[in-house]
Amino acid sequence: MYLDKILHEHRARIEVDTRNLETLIARAGQCGFGREFAERIRTDSVDRLAVIAEIKRKSPSKGVLNSNIDPAELAQSYEVGGASCLSVLTDEANFGGSVSDLQVARSAVQLPVLRKDFTVSEKDICDAKIMGADCVLLIVAALDRAELFGFHQLADELMLDVLVETHSEAELEMALTIGATLVGVNQRDLTTFAVDHDRAVRMAEMMPPNVIRVAESGVRDAQDAQRLRDAGYHAVLVGESLVTAADPASALDALRVSGG
Known about the structure:
The protein is of the alpha/beta class. It contains 13 helices and 10 strands. The protein has one domain: TIM Barrel (Alpha-Beta Barrel). The N and C termini lie far apart (about 35 Å).
């Protein structure tokens, strides 16, 4: 299905990547401190639900969402609307993203940025740091335990925050065992791409107090956002409903609910 196909593409690309890993790690290590992604969410979520606003041109399940995205302009709209962080797709084949989208968006605002992609090797971690990302995504369903632990450790060494994405209770347990403290629950099934709007609420109860909780996918409006805030989430990661909105800043501000 979708995930298997995408992972196959990414792993095939890495197999023919002849760059030296140690050289890449050294280069990434020279990039220094970035913007504090996790801390920004922790701070902003004290009074209102934080929003990680996504720049996303298309998806495998929905096709083209917005073909006219200007990454700088959209990032600025998100900042005006009160976004805490950005998420930028860099997968070109399946999501129409690019490294350029991330760099242009980040340069236009002061917000921390997540590189939203399918991380399958240490080289992907290094590339995220080198391109200017402040946070990298690790998807539990895409990695074995050794990869998850090793990639998380390398990201820590390179001063990258790590959003560990889960889709089930078993995946959440694995995320917690490798020391993840920024955990996403994706309500979209990466096999079928169907959305389960109850998944994040169910899984919130399993997360210890020290974990920053992020609900991903299927957040359509303030009602969805309030339900997740009430369940204990610090942030929501939202793409589709924002990139298709007539006024992204207003649509984003409406998601920044209080309470919880």
